[in-house]
Amino acid sequence: QAQASHVLQYNFERKHRQRESAITEGSKRQRQRLGFDEYKEQVKAKLLEAQAAQHAEVTRQRVLVQEKRQQMQDRRANADAQKIFMLRQSMLDKTCRAVDCQSIKEKRRQEVKIKADTNRDESEAWARQLETKRALLAAQQRARASDERDRRTY
What does the buried/exposed string (b/e) look like for 14-27 if buried means 16 or more CB atoms within 10 Å of the residue's CB? Predict the structure, then answer.
C-alpha cells in the first residue's frame, strides 16, 4: 500500500504538473495572443492615422489647388474687366476728342466769320468816311474853283 500510495502520489503530482504546465502554457499563449492583438491594434491604428493623414493631405492639396484656380480666375476676371474698361474708356476718349475737335473747329469758324464781318463793317465804315472826305474835298475844290472863277470874272 505504500507503493500504491506512492504511485497515486506520483500520478497526482504528474497530473498536477501537467495541469500546471497546461495552465502556464495557456496563460503564456493568452499573453502572447493579447500582445499580438495589441500589436495588431496598434498597427491598425497607425494605418488608420496614416490613411487619415494622407486623406487630409490630399484634401489640403485639393483646397490649395482650388484656391489657386480661384485666384487665377479672379485675376483673369480683373484683367478682362480692366481691358474692357480701357477699351470703353479709349472709345469714349476718342469720341470726346472728335466732338471737341468739331466744336473747336466750329467755334473757330464762327470767330473767323465774326472777325471777317467786323473787318468788313470796319472797312465799309472806313470806305464811307473816305468817300465822304473825297466828296467833301471835291465839293470844296469845286467851291474853290467856282469862287476862283467868280473872282476872275469880277
Answer: eeeeeeeeeeeeee
